[in-house]
Amino acid sequence: QKEVEQNSGPLSVPEGAIASLNCTYSDRGSQSFFWYRQYSGKSPELIMSIYSNGDKEDGRFTAQLNKASQYVSLLIRDSQPSDSATYLCAVLGQNFVFGPGTRLSVLP
Amino acid sequence: NAGVTQTPKFQVLKTGQSMTLQCAQDMNHNSMYWYRQDPGMGLRLIYYSASEGTTDKGEVPNGYNVSRLNKREFSLRLESAAPSQTSVYFCASSEAPSGMSSYNEQFFGPGTRLTVL
Hints:
The structure holds two protein chains of two kinds. Chain A is about 0% helix and about 55% strand. By secondary structure, chain A is mainly beta. In chain A, strands 2, 4, 5, 9, 10 and 11 form a six-stranded mixed β-sheet that branches. A five-stranded antiparallel β-sheet of chain A has the order 1-3-8-7-6, with no helix packed on it. In chain A, β6 and β7 (about 60-65) form a beta hairpin. Chain B is built from no helices and eleven strands. In chain B, strands 2, 4, 5, 6, 9, 10 and 11 form a seven-stranded mixed β-sheet that branches. Chain B starts with a strand and ends with a strand. Classes of the chains: A mainly beta, B mainly beta.
């Protein structure tokens, strides 16, 4: 079974700080990587996708991919209380595999 | 555009009852998926349909059947519900099932919260 691992958290950061979320995966053949945000009681919402090694920036979000280390991360700059949610890492190899999610709490 | 819609939003069943969860998308996507989400276990793929006319098992298919009715609609059926099927069920769709492009980004419906007593 291909696996995607994340720290379950909660990860607590003060408002305005950088939140760093990490994800490792086991399938070396994986080609596409995604970060979803899920508020309590709601459905997952896509916030970033990344396909090549390196960094990809979109507003306050930066995704980082290192295929050699089988590692993908999400940085959230200037964290806001509205960023408090569970962040799901998803990896596409033969099928989509989701990690268990990291709960982020941004403290005012 | 409504995106991905699911019905019903909530459902309570007794053990042994059957029901069908409905999903429809209006984004002209080729691929559709059914997931279940349980606390601490993340999203697990039940079945998927890479394109109209095809369906394949995912990680946890036992106890479920699916029908890809047309390009827009993908239903999930529980023939004889069990308490272990208590979960939140999400339907998702993407333009394509694989590859290295934005075509494989999945978009989710609002979910169905199912309780089996």
